[in-house]
Design goal:
single chain; two-stranded antiparallel sheet; 15 helices; 5-stranded parallel beta sheet; 333 residues; 15% strand
Length: 333
């Protein structure tokens, strides 16, 4: 039984086939440039298809920046990059008003847009900026507009933020506030490539030819795919699994044995993220409707940054990853 009653799967078929073909082409094009990170590529594509924002965490040299740049080209988005530093100001991201004098001698303020007015904003090393500057993204990421000097300025559509973070160097860095972490649809942990992929990287990136991505989608194609994600059918069993998983990760609601080390758990936005990301992941995999396997695969990326362990649990060596794995084992079958 499907809880989506807007459009039946048969009525979606006309648009779905072309969308699936474009997504497959995008995956192949990205894979020709980014080696050994298939899971990361699929998750990041799912973030865009779901209409969300992503946080990529990994040590330097794992092609996080290159992945975002490649995505912008392949998906056909107007992309800009901001290097976050401790002296970065909110106006460096949002823009600012300047006073101009007209020919009639009157002085007026004119708003000069900042880099946030891009379809894809890459926030590189986002945790290096001060909390004041980080907070400049909050309204944009949730409401898709910004307010400067009391005036509303709408952002382009689609609008996505893909941020990167280095987990090693904490000196000169600021932890992201929980409210901002919750704005990210998924947290994607970027790990080292395996030996075969690293061998390919070694050979193909040290010669005199450098692979260049080409656009295979447009922003209109992406918007059409995002509409399909929201119209795709999803089974009652999947909805119940999402609710069981998210609610069980909250202290006081789930199994006391499983939640005893959790300080605070995910809110309703985590369930929304799982629902949308599961639909998007299914499309990336060539399917219209998500499965329980999608929920299991997305549980950690959707929940990890939306919950925290108690000090006592961390002192005993407990990890958020291990807690989520136990929840998945119990509720996703």
């Amino acid at each position: 039984m499907s809880v989506t009653d807007t459009v039946s799967p048969s009525l979606l078929a006309r648009d779905v086939d072309s969308t699936l073909e474009r997504i497959a082409m995008a995956r192949a094009e990205i894979g020709a440039v980014i080696f050994g990170q298939e899971r990361v590529v699929d998750l990041t594509l799912a973030i865009l298809l779901a209409g969300g924002h992503g946080l990529l965490i990994g040590v330097p040299g794992l092609a996080k920046t290159k992945l975002v740049e490649t995505l912008g080209i392949v998906v056909g988005l107007d992309a800009l990059r901001v290097q976050f530093t401790p002296d970065l100001m909110p106006s460096d991201i949002l823009g600012s008003e300047v006073m101009e004098e007209g020919l009639d001698g009157k002085r007026v303020f004119r708003f000069i847009r900042g880099p946030i007015f891009a379809q894809l904003l890459m926030a590189d090393e986002i945790n290096r900026a001060s909390p004041r500057t980080q907070s400049a993204l909050l309204q944009a990421m949730q409401e898709h507009h910004v307010t400067v000097a009391g005036a509303r300025h709408d952002l382009p559509s689609p609008f996505h933020v893909l941020a990167t973070q280095n987990p090693l160097e904490q000196e000169g860095a600021y932890p992201l506030p929980e409210a901002q972490l919750d704005r990210f649809l998924l947290q994607v942990d970027v790990s080292y490539p395996d030996r075969a992929a690293e061998r390919r990287i070694l050979i193909e990136t040290t010669g005199d030819r450098d692979a260049k991505p080409r656009p295979v989608m447009t922003s209109d194609d992406l918007l059409a795919a995002q509409r399909i994600v929201r119209r795709a059918p999803i089974g009652e069993r999947i909805v119940e699994a999402i609710l069981d998983l998210v609610r069980a990760a909250r202290p006081g609601e789930g199994d006391p044995e499983l939640t005893k080390g959790i300080g605070w758990g995910p809110g309703p936005r985590a369930a929304q993220a799982l629902m949308l990301a599961a639909r998007a992941r299914a499309l990336v995999d060539g399917r219209l409707s998500p499965s329980l396997e999608d929920i299991a695969a997305l549980a950690e990326p959707a929940l990890k940054h939306r919950m925290a362990l108690t000090f006592a649990a961390r002192a005993e060596g407990e990890t958020t990853t291990a807690v989520i794995a136990r929840l998945v084992a119990k509720f996703i079958q």
